[in-house]
Design brief:
The complex is a heterodimer.
Chain A: H1 2-23, H2 39-59, H3 67-83, E1 88-95, E2 98-107, E3 116-122, H4 132-149, E4 158-163, H5 177-187, E5 192-199, E6 228-233, H6 237-250, E7 255-260, H7 272-277, E8 282-286, H8 308-326
Parallel strand pairs in A: 3-4, 3-5, 5-8, 6-7
Antiparallel strand pairs in A: 1-2, 2-4, 6-8
Helix pairs in contact in A: 2-4, 2-8, 4-8, 6-8
Chain B: E1 3-4, H1 18-25, H2 32-49, H3 58-69, H4 79-91, E2 96-106, E3 109-120, E4 122-133, H5 148-172, E5 175-185, H6 202-213, E6 220-227, E7 236-239, H7 244-256, E8 263-268, E9 270-271, H8 275-278, E10 284-288, H9 311-330
Classes of the chains: A alpha/beta, B alpha/beta.
C-alpha cells in the first residue's frame, strides 16, 4: 500500500513537474495598470487600424472563394512593403488551378552565416468571413514591424513573410502557404533560428472567465483574457522562453507562455506548425483566438472587435523581441 | 465637399447690386462722355496710386495642389491617405505641427483618421483658423476620384498661405495680429453615398468637441473654411449659416481687389465642416463654390481633375483670405 502511495505521489509529482516545465516562464507577467501609449504606440495604433480596415472592410473575404480579393490583398501588401523600401519577392504556386502567392521582404543581416529569423502571418481569411482579427491584425503587425525595423541593422537576416491559405481547407495540408514556403527553405538549405507567427492578436478582455483553455491548462493560467500568448512546441521551448523573457523585459503588457507538445489542442494552430514540420523552431504570438474570441471564424469577426490600443502595445513588444532575436550572436 | 442643404434653401440672387444703380444715377444728362472719360482715367490710375500690394501666388498654390492630387485617391484607410498624410507632415515639418489622431465610428466600423493643425503664433491673444478637408470620398473609391477641386485645391491654397505666414513670422517673431492656425481636417466626406449628420464631418466634429473641452474654442475669433474654391469659374456662394460680419469683412476684402463679383452673388445653405463650430458659437464662414461645372456636374465625379482648377482662382482666394485676416486683426 505504501509503495502504491509512493508511486502515486511520484506520478503526481512527475505530472506536475511536467506541466510546470511546459507552462512556467522566466520573469513575471506584467500585472500593473497599462501606461499611456507612447507616441510610437499611438502611431502604431493608427496604422494598424488603417491596415486592418483596408484588408477587412475594403477587400473583405480573402479566401479562394474570392480569388480576386485574395489577389487584391496580395497586391496591397506588396505595395505596402515596397513603399517601405523593401524589394518584395512573390512566391507563387497553384492550388486547384488557381494561382496564389506567398510574399517575402528581406532585411539582410550583417552576418550572413547566422540562422535567419522569420516574422510571418497569414493574410487569407476563412471563407465567408472578413477575418479582421484572424488574421488582419497579424498581417498588419508584420507590416508595422517591417516598417519599424527597416532603417536598422541586425546581425541576422530577417524575412517578413505573408502567407496565403493558412485557413481550412488548406490548414496543415501540402497546399498551406507556409507549408510550401518552409519546405522550400529546407530544400534550399536555409538555416532558420526562429519563426514567429503573428496569429490573431487584437482581442482582449478583463472579464473574469473570459479566457478558456484546453483541459487542465486553466490550472496554470489566468482566467482573464487580457494577455498575449507566446506558444511553441516542446522542440521550440528555448525560443518560447527567450521570447517571453524579452517581451516581459521590454513591454508593460500581460503575457503568458507555453511550450507544449505540438499535437496538443491549439498549440500548432498557425503557420509556425509548417516550420516545425521542417525541423525549424517556431512560435505563435496570439490572443489565443478560439479560446477567447467569441467571433472566431464567424462573419462577426469584424474590425470593431479589434482593440487597437492593446494591439499596438503588443506589436511594439513583438518588435522588440524580434530585434533581440535578430541581434543574437 | 459638403452637401447643399435643401431645407430652407435661400437661393437669393443678388446679381444686380444697389451700388451699381447708385453709380449710374450720378451721371448727369448732357455730360456723359466727360464723366465716362474721367471715370476711365480714374480706374486706370487708381491702382497705381495705392500702396503696392503683391498678389498672393495662386501659381504656387496650384503647384502644391498638383503635387498633392498626384497622390491619387486618398479615402480613409487607403494607402493614398497615408501618402497624403506624409505629404502634409513633410510640408510642415519645421512648423508647429500637431497631428490629432482619433478613431471615427463610421458605417464601416471604426476608422483611423487624422487632423493636422499648423500653428503660426500672433502677437494678439486669439486665433483665426483656416480650414480645409484633405481626404477623398470612401464611397467613390472605385472611380479614381482624386478631388482636384474638392480637397486638393484648398490644400494647395492653405499650403501657400502657410508659406506666407511662415515668412511673416520669421520677419517679426510672430504675426502682427492674431495667431493663425491652418487646419487640414480628415473625414469631411461621408463614408456612405448618402450624407447624414452622423456620417460626415468626422474630423471637425471630433476637433470642435475636443477644443470645447480644453477651452480652445473660446480663443477662436474666426473659423474660415475653404472648400471647392479652385474652380476656374469661381462663383462663391454666401453660405446661410456663416456669420454675417465675416461675410461682410470678406466682401470688403474681395471688393478691395476688384474681386467682388466672385463672391456671395447667391445664397445657399450648405452642410459642411464649419457646422460643428457654428453649433458651438464660434464665428464661422464656409467659403464654398458649390457650382462646379455645368449644373455642378463635376462634383463628386471622376471629372474633378486638375484641368478644372486655376491659379487665377487661387490667387483670388489667397488675396481675399489674407486680407480678411488683416481686417479681423484690425477689428
Amino acid at each position: 500500500m505504501r509503495l502504491l502511495l509512493v508511486a502515486l505521489a511520484l506520478t503526481i509529482a512527475g505530472v506536475l513537474g511536467r506541466f510546470l516545465w511546459i507552462t512556467q516562464m522566466r520573469l513575471r507577467s506584467y500585472a500593473g495598470t497599462l501606461p499611456p501609449l507612447t507616441s510610437e504606440e499611438l502611431e502604431l495604433r493608427y496604422r494598424l487600424s488603417a491596415e486592418v480596415s483596408y484588408l477587412s472592410v475594403t477587400i473583405g473575404d480573402r479566401s479562394l472563394l474570392h480569388p480576386q480579393s485574395l489577389q487584391a490583398a496580395s497586391e496591397y501588401l506588396s505595395s505596402n512593403l515596397r513603399e517601405q523600401g523593401y524589394a518584395v519577392v512573390e512566391h507563387p504556386y497553384s492550388v486547384q488551378g488557381e494561382p496564389v502567392n506567398n510574399l517575402e521582404a528581406t532585411l539582410p543581416g550583417t552576418s550572413g552565416t547566422l540562422g535567419q529569423v522569420i516574422v510571418g502571418a497569414h493574410y487569407d481569411s476563412v471563407a465567408g468571413t472578413v477575418g479582421a482579427n484572424d488574421n488582419c491584425t497579424g498581417v498588419a503587425g508584420v507590416l508595422e514591424i517591417a516598417r519599424l525595423m527597416r532603417q536598422m541593422k541586425f546581425r541576422r537576416t530577417v524575412r517578413f513573410v505573408l502567407f496565403v491559405n493558412e485557413e481550412p481547407p488548406y490548414f496543415q495540408t501540402a497546399d498551406m502557404g507556409s507549408r510550401v514556403y518552409a519546405h522550400q527553405l529546407r530544400q534550399d538549405g536555409v538555416p532558420i533560428s526562429g519563426m514567429i507567427s503573428l496569429e490573431t492578436i487584437g482581442f482582449y478582455s478583463d472579464e473574469p472567465g473570459s479566457q478558456k483553455y484546453p483541459p487542465v491548462l486553466n490550472l496554470f493560467y489566468p482566467s482573464k483574457g487580457n494577455f498575449i500568448g507566446i506558444v511553441g512546441n516542446t522542440e521550440s521551448r528555448g525560443l518560447v522562453r527567450e521570447s517571453v523573457r524579452d517581451f516581459r523585459e521590454s513591454t508593460r503588457f500581460p503575457s503568458e507562455g507555453i511550450a507544449a507538445p505540438g499535437d496538443w489542442l491549439g498549440i500548432g494552430w498557425s503557420d509556425q506548425w509548417s516550420f516545425w514540420q521542417e525541423g525549424y523552431p517556431g512560435i505563435m504570438v496570439t490572443d489565443t483566438a478560439p479560446f477567447r474570441y467569441p467571433y472566431y471564424h464567424t462573419p462577426k469577426d469584424t474590425v470593431e472587435k479589434v482593440n487597437f490600443d492593446k494591439a499596438a502595445r503588443v506589436v511594439d513588444g513583438i518588435r522588440k523581441l524580434v530585434e533581440e532575436l535578430a541581434n543574437k550572436p | 465637399m459638403p452637401r447643399p442643404c435643401f431645407c430652407g434653401m435661400g437661393g437669393i440672387a443678388q446679381h444686380s447690386t444697389t451700388n451699381r444703380v447708385a453709380q449710374v444715377s450720378i451721371l448727369r444728362p448732357g455730360r456723359p462722355q466727360l464723366w465716362t472719360s474721367f471715370l476711365t482715367v480714374l480706374l486706370l490710375f487708381t491702382p497705381l496710386a495705392l500702396p503696392a500690394q503683391p498678389h498672393f501666388s495662386g501659381a504656387k498654390a496650384l503647384d502644391y495642389a498638383r503635387q498633392f492630387v498626384a497622390i491619387g485617391p486618398r479615402w480613409p484607410t487607403s494607402p493614398g491617405h497615408l501618402k497624403a498624410e506624409e505629404f502634409l507632415r513633410n510640408q510642415f515639418r519645421h512648423d508647429q505641427l500637431e497631428e490629432d489622431t482619433f478613431t471615427a465610428n463610421t458605417p464601416i466600423g471604426p476608422v483611423a483618421m487624422r487632423n493636422f493643425i499648423v500653428r503660426f503664433p500672433g502677437k494678439k491673444d486669439g486665433v483665426i483658423v483656416l480650414a480645409t478637408h484633405y481626404e477623398t470620398n470612401y464611397w467613390l473609391r472605385n472611380i479614381n476620384f482624386v478631388g482636384a477641386n474638392d480637397g486638393g485645391s484648398t490644400v494647395g491654397l492653405l499650403m501657400a498661405i502657410g508659406d506666407q505666414l511662415r515668412a511673416d513670422v520669421a520677419r517679426g517673431k510672430a504675426l502682427d495680429g492674431y495667431s493663425v492656425w491652418l487646419l487640414f481636417d480628415d473625414g469631411e466626406e461621408s463614408i456612405q453615398p448618402t450624407w447624414t449628420t452622423s456620417d460626415s464631418t468626422y474630423g471637425t466634429r471630433h476637433l470642435a468637441a475636443k477644443w470645447q473641452r480644453d477651452g480652445t474654442l473660446g480663443r477662436i475669433k474666426a473659423f474660415i473654411l475653404a472648400d471647392m474654391i479652385g474652380d476656374k469659374d469661381l462663383d462663391i456662394q454666401r453660405e446661410s449659416r456663416s456669420a454675417g460680419w465675416l461675410v461682410d469683412l470678406m466682401t470688403k476684402a474681395a471688393t478691395k481687389f476688384g474681386y467682388g463679383h466672385h463672391f456671395f452673388q447667391t445664397e445657399e445653405e450648405v452642410e459642411d465642416d464649419h457646422l460643428p463650430f457654428v453649433e458651438r458659437g464660434v464665428p464661422s464662414i464656409d467659403v464654398i463654390d458649390l457650382d462646379y461645372g455645368p449644373n455642378n456636374s463635376y462634383h463628386h465625379t471622376a471629372q474633378d481633375t486638375m484641368d478644372k482648377i486655376s491659379a487665377r482662382s487661387l490667387t483670388i482666394d489667397g488675396d481675399v483670405f489674407l486680407e480678411t485676416i488683416h481686417l479681423i486683426d484690425a477689428r
